[in-house]
Amino acid sequence: MPAHNSLPGDAARPRRHRSESRAAAFLSPLTWLLPLLVLLLLGGTGSALYIGGLGSPSGHLQHVPIAVVNRDQGSDAGGTEQNFGQNITDTLTENFGKTDEIDLRPLNWDDAQHQLRSGQVYAAVVFNEDFSADAAGLVTSSLTASEASRPQVTLYTNPLASPLGSQLAGEAVEPALREASSSLGGQLESSAQAAQTEAQRSLDRQLAQVPLPAAVESSLAPQIDGTAETVLRDPIQVTETPFESPAQGEALGMGAFFYSVLLMVVGISGSVTLHFLIDSRLGVSPVELGTRFVLGPRLQPARWVTFLLKWGLMLAIAVPTAGLIMWIANLVGMPIPHGGWFFFSTWLSLATISAVTLGLVTLFGSAGLILSMIYVVFMGLPAATGVVPLEMLPGFFSFIARGEPLYQMTIANKAILYFDAEAGAGLQAGLIGMGIIILVFVVIALAAGLLYDRLFGVRSALPERRKAAART
Fold first, then answer.
1. Residues 6+ apart with CB under 8 A from 118
2. What is the pLDDT of residues 255-276, one digit of tens each?
3. Domain ABC-2 type transporter transmembrane: where (predicted)?
4. Cα(43)–Cα(33) distance, integer angstroms
5. pLDDT tens, 370-412?
6. What does the alpha-carbon distance between residue 20 and residue 199 come to, in Å, rounded to a whole number?
């Protein structure tokens, strides 16, 4: 490629005039004001969206999905059928139904496991099969020397769906379980006191027939000791455990998000690099290589043709790039099931990011690079659900998430890596979402390119540049 040289008239200009012109250019507000405004725009927008969006997840709970499962078989206590697990389940459902923070889903155990495995719920509250029997056993054991177990509730978290989301879901439901334990404790204390009264009456009837010394009678009196009383007051034992722990190499359940961020960075960087190289090759604008400004022959292609050329090259280059990224990711320890689906999702992610970036450049010129940073990065990172789930973000991000490439990339990659490539776990929605984003930006870029060429001519700046060179 020929080097871009100085214009002929430059040599005839006095050195002093050139120095004054440079000084005026350096001091001109046009030189420093625009970069200042751009940096302030990026800094302010990034802080507002990223820090503002992710800073307080516990304060933005909105319909957080949690399953509740009653496996309690009930108990026949004193001739009365009791199912404490069902009673507490009904109470939890009613209380959480009064707010929009928690979407409590009463499910059977099979459905709950399916929703945990597909990432549809962040936690599950499960009342064990012997819950009522163990609760009734506490009343009996409080007056005897027999052993008893506390009624058990298992709180399953789902770190593969979202490490932070499962943690906050557990924290959201724990106060309700403590309140349920206190309420059940009140019932058991009343039952224990009634049983103690009845036992004392029975003892009194027996002692009326066989009188004993007062000291002996006192020792035979039924008593609820301090330990039993403490257990009765707070009977439920909650055990928290992950339903399925992330495997080695899955970054504690955030590996799919980190991988999607990598694809975003590669897609943007590759698209920007390709944009400048192709523009230089087509003679649109020079590119600086070391000490040289390289500019190819001025072909003056139509804008829509240039877009298709750049994006088409990106689609082709993304094939080996996707394979290389996958191979290195697996080489360093990331498990990759369903390799075919994962390769397609990786390639489609790169294609989506390039369509967005090059589309914005076609529509807005160089300003499109800044807009792509705001749209894809600053708006996309908080809305991607990689760190904080949508149900724990301000409503703005729930509104924009479906239109964000990184969100669609993350849910598709997460479904493949963690949820057996199940369509309902996000794979279908993610792939379709990326396809729609590609279609929208390709159509916009082609329409804008055709319109600009019709209204302003094909690269109309080039004739103006040649006229300016001739005048000098």
1. 419, 422, 424, 425
2. 999 999 999 999 999 999 999 9
3. 31-446
4. 15
5. 999 999 999 999 999 888 999 999 989 989 999 999 999 999 9
6. 108
